[in-house]
Design brief:
217 residues, alpha+beta, 2 domains, six-stranded antiparallel sheet
Length: 217
């Protein structure tokens, strides 16, 4: 209880500190503008104001709306969904700041971003495959932590089909951890599970079926 209280107080202090910083920056920009300061100095102060303001806005949105929404929802991987939303917000804020504060052409930003995305996509094909497979598993809600499942497919890039039975422990953007009845933990990439056949089992059925990864006859 005291740890939760300290966390809440610490978060409130951080938000208050950022709010005061925003007010100070806004006042600074206003004073500089009214005193006919150097235009570049005023532009730098204004850019800093919008950068900190965007960061503060995203943090407040995450703390007040996003975190309570995901924590109250029965979703398999709330942390995964939160990271995706926050990342999208930061990317959108960066694009708008470059366009508004920096005066960069929006078309140039999108063109450069497309080229960078293509380069990153080619170099991180396997990682992105696991990412999009994780998104698919999250949206479909095929299973969630605590479920006993039977997975059948080409699980280890070997010839033939294999069957694995265990309990889902954690789900991340990259992989799923499954614990067997014997206590062994196996980590499967998301793309492997997305291509496999997954069957929900009761605990009794899991015990009868065994928990080892075995070839399917």
């Amino acid at each position: 209880m005291f740890r939760d209280l300290r966390t809440a107080v610490s978060s409130t202090r951080r938000i208050a500190a950022f709010g005061l910083l925003i007010l100070a920056l806004g006042l600074c920009a206003y004073v500089l503008g009214t005193q006919h300061a150097h235009p570049r100095f005023v532009q730098a102060a204004g850019s800093l104001f919008w950068i900190v303001g965007a960061y503060l806005g995203i943090r407040i949105f995450t703390y007040i709306l996003l975190d309570p929404l995901l924590s109250n929802r029965e979703t398999a991987v709330p942390g995964f969904a939160r990271d995706l939303v926050v990342f999208a917000l930061y990317v959108g804020a960066a694009v708008l700041l470059l366009h508004k504060a920096g005066g960069v052409n929006l078309g140039a930003i999108l063109g450069t971003g497309a080229i960078a995305a293509a380069v990153v996509g080619l170099s991180l094909q396997e990682t992105l495959g696991n990412l999009f497979a994780g998104i698919s598993l999250h949206l479909d809600e095929a299973f969630r932590p605590g479920d006993w499942i039977e997975v059948t497919g080409n699980l280890r890039n070997a010839s033939g089909q294999e069957t694995f039975i265990g309990q889902v422990e954690t789900m991340t953007w990259r992989s799923v951890q499954i614990v067997t009845e014997n206590g062994d933990t196996t980590v499967f990439p998301n793309r492997v599970l997305a291509q496999a056949v997954v069957t929900h089992l009761s605990r009794a059925a899991a015990r009868r079926g065994g928990t080892e990864c075995r070839p399917r006859c």
